[in-house]
Design a protein that fits this description.
The complex is a heterodimer of chains A (243) and B (138). Chain A is an all-alpha fold and 243 residues long. Chain A has helices at residues 2-12, 20-43, 52-67, 71-77, 79-90, 93-106, 108-131, 136-142, 149-158, 163-187, 193-215, 217-242. Chain B is 78% helix and 0% strand. Classes of the chains: A mainly alpha (243), B mainly alpha (138).
């Protein structure tokens, strides 16, 4: 009991055990860069290649390099944002609950595309990194590539991958999926917006979902369902198989 | 205005509590699942047990989900610490990401079109699921 509580307190401890001025400076700088890159994304018509997360990460990375601030120290400074990821992920239950009527009505016809997309993507990804002879740590990280980032990080941690690397791979996957998604939809002549949504959501998670929302609201709703269910299935199954 | 912000704060507090409970369960019982996933299940069970979904939770969920990106930045930034691994394997990574995403997205689109062409959900359900996206710019 005590040791479980202790582990939680250790996770929270950077909040009070550091220089507050530095901490607030880091938080405000990060928030500013994030909001600006969101604006930029909006001005550039939501081009997935210029996703706010890529722009913010690059900006902060370059900024840290020139200001000669240690990455570890900066990361400690923005622990608050890292901690908020937990409650935000829990909130995923809300859209999932709202989509449950669809699942009840269509049943397996909704589950099948999600299962296909959710198992195909990690299999191909793992095969290619396996054939290219990368270390095991990288191979394990690759398995979580198509689920929503917060669940991917938690899962990667459990199966012996690297959470931070998982975050980057997942975002890259989303960007690739959302960029080429519209072309692939034309190429495969997919005209059912349910199919489009499920495929985009289950292969390209949140970034695919915002692309799906730009197609139609129904398409976005199905993408949300795909994103939530694939996230849950993968995060359930991988630790059972590999942990 | 005040009422809705109080509601939002209450909802946020509930979400935090659920997350802490799931963190505790994760460490105490050693459940082999990401803590956040345990939290999702707890919240889902709560929704299914309650006669009506509490507005407080849905209201606070919206901004949290919309700004998930901000909470991911710490992880993305710390990738700078793994620069060496990246430098060594970035070709393999890019090939794997591009190939697997394009092929699996293509196949999934094609197959789900076969499964779902002509399928229609009832307009009532459709109305209820897209309502979520109305007034949801931020």
């Amino acid at each position: 009991m005590m040791s479980a509580l202790q582990q939680i307190v250790v996770q929270l401890s950077p909040l009070w055990s550091q220089n507050y001025v530095f901490m607030f400076a880091c938080l405000i700088a990060t928030l500013g860069v994030y909001l600006l890159s969101r604006k930029l994304h909006f001005w550039l018509n939501y081009n997935p290649l210029l996703h706010p997360l890529t722009i913010s990460t690059l900006t902060i990375g370059i900024g840290l390099h020139f200001a000669e601030i240690d990455v570890m120290a900066f990361k400690r400074g923005i622990t608050l944002f890292e901690l908020l990821l937990g409650p935000a992920t829990v909130a995923l239950a809300v859209p999932l609950y709202n989509q449950l009527p669809v699942l009840r009505q269509l049943g397996f016809r909704v589950l099948a595309p999600i299962l296909i997309g959710g198992s195909l993507a990690p299999t191909i990804a793992w095969l290619s990194v396996y054939l290219l002879e990368t270390p095991l740590q990288l191979q394990m990280t690759m398995l979580v590539k198509s689920i929503t980032t917060p669940l991917a990080m938690g899962t990667a941690d459990l199966i012996g991958g690297t959470p931070e690397l998982a975050a980057v791979i997942v975002i890259l996957t989303g960007i690739v999926g959302a960029t080429f998604g519209p072309w692939l939809i034309i190429l495969t002549k997919t005209d059912s917006e349910y199919a489009q949504g499920l495929a985009l959501g289950s292969v390209a998670h949140v970034i695919g979902t915002s692309k799906a929302l730009s197609i139609s609201e129904t398409c976005g709703a199905f993408a949300t369902l795909g994103l939530c269910l694939n996230g849950i299935f993968t995060a359930l199954l991988l630790p059972i198989l590999f942990a | 205005m005040i009422k809705s912000s109080v509601r939002g704060i209450c909802g946020f507090a509930i979400l935090c509590c659920i997350y802490f409970i799931s963190l505790f369960l994760f460490h105490y019982f050693g459940i082999p699942l990401p803590p956040a996933l345990i939290g999702i299940f707890l919240l889902l069970i709560l929704f299914l047990l309650l006669p009506k979904v509490p507005v407080a939770i849905t209201q606070s969920a919206r901004p949290l989900l919309a700004h998930m990106g901000l909470f991911l930045l710490p992880a993305l930034i710390s990738v700078l610490l793994y620069g060496d691994l990246f430098k060594q394997y970035y070709v393999a990574l890019m090939i794997a990401v591009l190939l697997s995403t394009l092929v699996s997205l293509g196949i999934t689109l094609w197959l789900s079109q076969r499964i779902l062409s002509g399928v229609k959900i009832s307009s009532q359900i459709n109305q209820s699921i897209i309502n979520e996206y109305k007034n949801n710019d931020e």
